[in-house]
Batch of 2 targets.
Target 1
Amino acid sequence: MRGGADLAATGERLLAWYDRSARRLPWRVPPGGDERPDPYRVWLSEVMLQQTTVAAVRGYFEAFTERWATVEALAAAPEAEVMAAWAGLGYYARARNLVACARAVVRERGGRFPDDEPALRTLPGIGAYTAAAVAAIAFGRPAVVVDGNVERVVARLFAVTDPLPAAKPRLHALAAALTPAGRPGDHAQAMMDLGATVCTPKRPACGICPLVGDCDGRAAGIAAELPRRAEKPAKPLRQGIAYLALRGDGAVLVETRPPSGLLGGMVGLPCGDWVERGEPPARPPLAAAWRELGPEVRHTFTHFHLRLRLVGARIDFGPGGDFRPAPEAGAAMPTVMRKALRLGLAAMAGA
Ligand code: SF4
């Protein structure tokens, strides 16, 4: 590992690059100044950005902050509205925790986010990464912010060849050694920007990298293959049936999933259980002339692949239930259910 003087010089080069090249993002303030970003916006952006790209988040962030400009406004919003606005962004436990966290900040802290990591971590949905990011970026605390981008940059800079996830503690320690006491928020964002725009996963653009002269991975000719990863077990396949009940006026039957668990609290087509072995059980939500629609929905979650058979029926106006106009229902659904609705409607229109 390099000496302290080298690390300080590396950190300065990184900040100088950030001053010139920082991405302009709606939750940021320009680098180097005294202006601090709004903790609410930093927190919201960091929660949205977990497991999601900046390109996907930008529109959601703008829509959320237009509709709920403050933590008080978000805390007062009905949870179902927040879930519907989050639809399509994935990892829906984040949306439920978002509302719970906003309410805790308003109820217990007078609408002010705490400014250090331990206190931030007591709030719903704020783990080690988000607490460090908010503490550093919103409050200028010297917190060590390590996400996947930062792990990659650090593994390459220090030529760490141990595979992830076992290498995590070492990468964190190296990231900590690189974090300066001054401008920790800008340093964190500079690392994120370098990982997202220069030191990219497949083809690091070492030729334009401000740290090219500091990089052990580049010097050893192994940068592009870092970080190494232990082989993951193959994801299992689950299967299920989704039911599309289409009423004469174009409304479709939806169900709101239970609050906890996968897609918890989200609106979707009625489904039976998703099973890994055997045939999925038939659980039609109402009596009707159900028939196979043909197309199959395929979707991959973090821990498994899913295949949903689509079954549909045209319904008279008689039965009750949560029928909603198809476009409105689709807008509130997570991606997998949107796919199912779109494919099912197309199949029924063509029948
Ligand atoms: Fe990444 Fe290349 Fe820069 Fe090293 S020199 S940090 S591998 S972009």
Note: The CA atoms of residues 200 and 228 lie 14 Å apart.
Target 2
Amino acid sequence: MAVVGWIGLGNMGGSMSANLAKAGHDVRGFDLNPAAVAAAEAGGVKPVRSIAEAVDGADVVFTMLPKGDHAKAVYLGEGGVLAHADTATLLVDSSTIDIASAQELHDAAAAAGFRFVDAPVSGGMSGAKAGTLTFMVGGEEGAVADATGYIGPMASNIIPTGGATTGQAAKICNNLMLFINLASTAEGAVLADRLGLDKQVFWDIASVSSGDSWALRTWYPVPGVVSTAASNNDFAPTFTTELANKDIGLAISAAEDTGTPLEIGRHVQQLFQQLIDAGESGKDCSMIIKLVDGSLETSN
Ligand code: NAD
């Protein structure tokens, strides 16, 4: 069994690290938010008080942080991973971050003598809990193979994507499609309701028809249809609007770099921006349905 350092115990990292603990690994978890640490402790993760403590003696360190700036602070900062870990420790960043930041982490890790992979995930909070995430892993072949050995208890699919930053590239494109699907699901759900269809009957049809998608099956934005959906809990976040806006922004900036027109993606980003402007950045991104049914009440 391995010693695992885990940094970032939020909606995703809390459950992912708990699955490694359940698999018998000695997992030491750190987060700035005491409530996140307490929840992870209940899942079998040993709480520690600093990054230095989390990485001390670790075979592998995982990070699951919101954005590129958080990941850079955690790896490159004074009290950070590169300053405190042993170079024998394998470093795995599972956060979804921009390609430039991911490249910076690969370069800094290599310059300091570490093996580092970018390994973002898909599958949402429900997949994190169930240990059924898809990992897309980019980096040097040997490091990717070693990371795969640790990822098993958290994943149904582990897919090597190629060299440094290709995991992030795959994730950014996947999430562009996810959020477009989410917006289309919200529009279909509201229109179905207004045409007099029962919500469950319409979902039963769409989920076995050509309107099907992961967003429909996991995040259906109408309450009382799908058990994993945030719509059942007044849109308490499983994936915040702020993070969704970040992800679609990563796709738009990658599109600008490559001269790719993303007309639908840009429109969906405007919808997330409307939710953020209305003071709902911390709510679940499936709240986008309120822009379709007209029920958004601003909280700022
Ligand atoms: P979250 O905000 O719930 O969790 C992030 C955690 O990182 C927080 O608990 C925060 O306190 C902690 N953190 C921030 N800076 C830190 C630091 N310097 N040191 C220690 N801890 C720090 O976010 P999440 O939903 O778990 O998402 C994490 C990443 O995974 C994001 O990049 C997101 O885009 C991606 N992701 C999320 C989902 C989802 O459904 N929520 C799915 C796939 C990928």
Note: The first helix runs from residue 13 to 22.
